[in-house]
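Q: What does the assembly look like in three dimensions?
Context provided by user:
Components: three
Sequences:
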Amino acid sequence: MLVLNNIEVTYSEVILVLKGVSLTVPKGGIVAIMGANGAGKSTTLKAISGLLYVEQGKITHGSIEFDGMRIDKMNPQDLTKFGIVQILEGRQVFENLTAEENLKVAGYNSDSHNVKRNLEMVYHYFPRLREIRHNISGYLSGGEQQMCVIGRALMTSPKLMLLDEPSLGLSPLLTKEIFEILGKYNHEQHTSILLVEQNALLALKLAEYGYVMENGRTVMDGPSSKLLDNPDVREFYLGLVDIGERKSFRDVKHYKRRKRWQ
Amino acid sequence: MRYPAGIYNINYAQDMSIIRTKAHWVIFALGMIALFTFPLYATSFIHIINLVGIYVISAVGLMLLTGYCGQISLGQAAFMMVGAYTGAWMTRAGFPFWGTLILSGLITGVVGLIFGLPAVRVKGFYLAMSTLAAQFIIPWCIVEIRPDFTGGIHSLRVNPMTIFGHKLISQIEMFYVIITITCILIIFAKNLVRTQIGRAWVAIRDNDLAAEVLGINIFLYKLIAFFVCTFFAGISGCLWAHWMRNVGPTHFEFVTSIWFLGMIILGGMGSITGAVVGVIVVRILDYVVSILLTPLVEEAFPLLSNQIVAGLPAFVFGLIILLFIIFEPRGVNHRWEIFKASYRIWPFSY
Amino acid sequence: MTASIFQFAVSGILVGSLYSLVSLAIVLVYKATHVFNFATGSMIVFTSFLIWTMIGLGLPLWLAILVSIAFSYIFGLLLEWLVLRPLIGQPLIGSLMATLALTELLRGLIIMIFSAHEFHLGYHIFPPIVKKIGPVFISPALFGGFVLCTICLIALILFFRYSPKGLSMRATADGHYIAQSVGIRVSTVFSVTWGIAGVICAMAGLALMDRIGFSIVQTPSVVIFCFAAVLMGGLDSVPGAILGGIIVGLVSDLASGLISSQVGMLMPYIVLMVVILVRPEGIWGLKRIERI
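A: Here is the predicted structure of the complete assembly.
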């Protein structure tokens, strides 16, 4: 169970990006974070997985706890062995390695006793990977790369997966397939998932609980069914206004309604 | 954070200005007066100032290529060498000084273009290696091909500069010439950077694929950058030859190129002021090491005094550059900008 | 005439094996850390001084070499820890400048401690049996270096290809943060890489020391040959480095023998320019994969 307590994150000592974020991910649950670009969603994930230092970021306030242990000072490699793995934004595979080598290297460095077993498990969830396992991953298509990246994370036998925009650049069909696989994995292996996603509809369909972030703060949270019904979320993130009715462009006015959470 | 509170830009000219407020103009004028009256109160340092001025020209050129256009050049010393030998030879042949200066710059520019041609195929590290090759090929050509012209591995004596028939021998006379040329070239560089060319350079530096997609002909602009950088290096070399009155292959080694890169990193990449600051900082460093540190270390190890004199500057320089790269890779200029920003928004911390 | 061509060719190949060894050190560091180690020349001189000092202290040759290997490994670790570790994630010019600054620092240090003179061991390490194959003389130092290189080559290729540690190092080469996010202890990878590079520098220093002595002024210029070799073979290719070293050695020895020694000195830079213009990623190098 992951608990963020009022996190403040600063970049380069002068840019305050997260202004007191608190959230919880229950054990075996799926939680989604939504928000506009620049809201601080990736920063939240990087704060959890320890990759903030790369961009000169630091957690200046608050604490992060996982299963009761403080993890905000741990480095990314230790966190991976501990069971928290982040899937970075943008399908970042090890370009010059084959798909299978990508998976293996993750296995050797986190859960080295179960490499063979985890490999079989990954191929079971992503059968396409088995077909392309000897291809150099830099040349794979976007969808295959994303599968490779997620498979790589699965090889570490994670307790918590942090996914940063998994649908980026993928076709809707493929995105649906990947989200189904994620749901299946969560159901069978009881791995918690924290998901940052722009495709709010899909995210809320997969997740049980959601947070909406804006300007470094969580402005709304709730079970995903409630969020899906919330009129503010519907207008600003789902683009659903007056479902089913035809709208005249004469009626379209920018920000006809102010967001109620400000 | 670029300007103090209350200063806004309401037209394009203001946005692009180098000197924005009246206060800036006053400071600039005072600075120029102080600079040009240097000989009145700093006579003992004039030769250092001259060398700084010459190095500043070269550093500014390198800053344009490496700091603005993002192409690392490891051959700045070799290009200066071209300018130096051209200037030396032309003054020997009796050409007027201003013509020599311009022509050295142009010829060096052409040489720079030749070594910038690989930019059509490669970028980044590989282009840097091409300039590394230049750093060794150029001296080899100068020394080995027609050593009768260039004095071969021995140094070549240079005649003094002659302007309107008057031979410039003293440091103070040369000071005025060097400082004037330096100021003109700095103003030229600052202007160049705010034109389309400068913007194209920054685009290439930050993401050359995106720049190409936007329609910027990156090959052309890289070549322009190489030309301008080596033009500056040529002028700097020519001035150096006339100041030193002596040119030889040992003055322009690979080490010197490294020092130039170090200067612009210390000063802060990406700004002309950074180049100036970097040269001054390295000169101060050199002074501190040779005058202050060396005697101290020699006292500690009296048997090694010759070696210490030879090795200490290199050691300290390497150490300082390393420390800067590790702790403040954006150089002194960045710290200055942070300082300015922080006092402008005082008492808030961010 | 043919006999002398043959002579230069053979000596060129044998010298090339030395360049291959040093190119190996550069490629190793580059593969894992994406840093081009300009300081290799200074490192070779430094480790040569280690060996020289050990021998000067009276240790028997085999012990001196073993101790120097250990110290060279530590030297590599130290360099990595002090200089490269803080630079993870910096752009190209940062790491480039860092190794250049390191070159200067080591150069100054060596001049201060040992002076800029040329040093020789005073005796030969490899048994002075001058081999003669047909019309060709092969010096024992060259041959010794060749054997040393072959052993290192085979060991390293096997290591990178098949071992989990080698795989981790190749993965780290492709992305430091991604590597960290899957649990690779990137800092260990870097340390081991530099340590091994230090040991290779010691081995190269040993071979050079026997043949032509070493000095902080002369030895770094040998390393420029290796830069050309590395680029020709491909920055991330171990076999490419070997092949590149041999080709550069061949070409420059032939040039210096048949044309003049000055032209021989110029050859590596010409090779460098040609490689950059024709095939910058090297013959065996991995083409940089850029998806737009």
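Follow-up: The first helix of chain A runs from residue 41 to 49.
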